[in-house]
Amino acid sequence: GQSLEQPSEVTAVEGAIVQINCTYQTSGFYGLSWYQQHDGGAPTFLSYNALDGLEETGRFSSFLSRSDSYGYLLLQELQMKDSASYFCAVRAGDTDKLIFGTGTRLQVFP
Amino acid sequence: DGGITQSPKYLFRKEGQNVTLSCEQNLNHDAMYWYRQDPGQGLRLIYYSQIVNDFQKGDIAEGYSVSREKKESFPLTVTSAQKNPTAFYLCALRGGTGPGELFFGEGSRLTVL
To answer: Which residues of B touch A103 (CB under 8 A)?
Structure first.
């Protein structure tokens, strides 16, 4: 089966840097995705890592280590609007199934 | 206007009634998904479809049914057999840039009274 673990909550102040970790167990790994969801809204795609290393997209970066079954999302120069829930997700084997973690709620304080 | 449309946005039903949630897309994408989200929880996969006239059960398919008669449409029926149907239901398409990217609709919030 597949399982993903994330911290339930993270807090930080504006302008700071925060890292949200995700460890996974899956039968057949094809990549790790990250999504952002504001309260009451739908998830929006942030990034996808299929290979080891760091991918940077503006203030957000995502890292993957396949040997450690581990990844993280790094948010820099935090803004109040970054307060949201963040989900990691893995593709389950050689299928189109995408399995989500339980999410990390990020609260950014002024 | 291109995209994925879910309706209705809010729905109230009495216990024991079947309800059907609509999901329509005009992006010509093959793979479509239905997820359920409970308050403060992650997304759990109900059903997904990779192609017309074919669909697969996800992790929590019991009490739900789907059809995929057209590429554009993937409706979800919440049947009376679903024990706890009150939830936020999200429909998604697999994005064009890679296997890990989904585009989500705005969701349908179902409350069973």
So the answer is: 41-42
Contacts of A25 by beta carbon, 8 Å cutoff, 6+ apart: A1, A2, A3, A4, A69
Task: Count A/B contacts: CB-CB distance under 8 Å.
Answer: 67
Confidence check: pLDDT of B96 > 70: no
Tell me which residue has tokens 């064009």.
B96
Helices (H), ranges, B1-113:
none
Phi, psi angles (nearest 5°) of residue A80: -55, -35
Q: Using CA atoms, how far apart are residues A70 and A56, in angstroms rounded to an integer?
A: 17
Q: pLDDT averaged over chain B?
A: 92
Return the HEC string of chain A. CCEEECCCEEEEECCCCEEEEEEEECCCEEEEEEEEECCCCCCEEEEEECCCEEEEECCEEEEEECCCCEEEEEECCCCHHHCEEEEEEEEECCCCCEEECCCEEEEEEC
Mean pLDDT of A3-14: 95
Which of A29, A86, A96 best tests the B interface by mutation, with the highest count of B CBs <10 A?
Answer: A96
Q: Give B71's DSSP letter.
A: T
Structure tokens, B84: 């706890």
pLDDT at B2 over 70: no
Cβ of B43 within 8 Å of Cβ of A87? The answer is yes
**A87 touches B at CB < 8 Å:** yes
